[in-house]
Amino acid sequence: MTDAPAITDLRSRLDADLGGAARAWLDQATAEATARHGQPGQGAAPVWELRFAEAGRRCGQEHADAARVLLLHAADADPATLTRVYEQGTAAERRAVLHALPHLVPGPEALPLVEDALRTNDTRLVAAAVGPYAARHLDPHHWRHAVLKCLFTGVPVDAVADLPRRAHSDAELARMLGDYAGERTAAGRPVPGDLHRVLALTAPTAPSAGEVPPGAATPSAPATPSTGEEQES
To answer: In this structure, is the dihedral angle defined by the CA atoms of residues 151, 5, 219 and 205, taken in order, positive or negative?
Structure first.
């Protein structure tokens, strides 16, 4: 997984999958976001932010992330708005903000949101945090720890965007992976299979980005293990 799906692709996918009522709701919600109807006042949230919160109920949980990314994009949410929505949101809403970052923030201003998500043990938040935005902007130290976080929590490394390029010839990451494998072995615990896959990518002779290492599984969408995430309204 390297690049975030284009906004037009997200919308096309939703148009194909949603029923008529859900599509009509999304049309209205994105129009409100574009027009910035109902700006904050007297403590009230903008109308589009209310729609953001109800996207799971209106579009279904399987389409909520994409619908919320479209709303954030339509609103042209800046880092301050994204931070507010993230901090006030449920885990599902926070995940959508993380998915929206590569579409909305060209620079590193939103890295605190990625770092916050990586401090959690919610596997779906961690998977969203290691997407294209992190690949572009996390410094080497924090990126290496993000990879290890995936191994600690069981998030498949297919979730880590641009993994072959960033891991290539990274001797420090190789050392950290070796230390972690040694700790697991000494404790009588299995070493995650993904660790060996990442370790192979750190070699100077590893395939370049875009090539699939011999014997490696073809990258697929990251799994989303249940984490007890709260139900949406």
So the answer is: negative
DSSP 232: P
How many CB atoms are located within 10 Å of the residue 187 CB? 7
With beta carbons less than 8 A apart as the criterion, state whether 132 and 162 touch: yes
Six token digits for residue 1: 């997984």
Nearest to 154 by CA among 183, 182, 127: 127
Q: Identity (one letter) of the amino acid at 123?
A: T
- What tens digit of pLDDT does each residue of 17-71 get? 999 999 999 999 999 999 874 454 445 678 899 999 999 999 999 999 999 999 9
Find the angle CA(164)-CA(201)-CA(152) to the nearest 5 degrees.
90
Q: Return the residue matching tokens 């880092």.
A: 79
Strands (E), 75-123: none
> Is 74 within 8 Å of 34 (Cβ atoms)?
yes
Closest CA to 198 of 138, 148, 155, 123: 148
- Angle, helices 20-35/7-17, rounded to nearest 10 degrees: 150
∠ Cα 150 151 157 (to 5°)? 60
* Cα–Cα distance, 210 to 163 (Å, whole number): 10
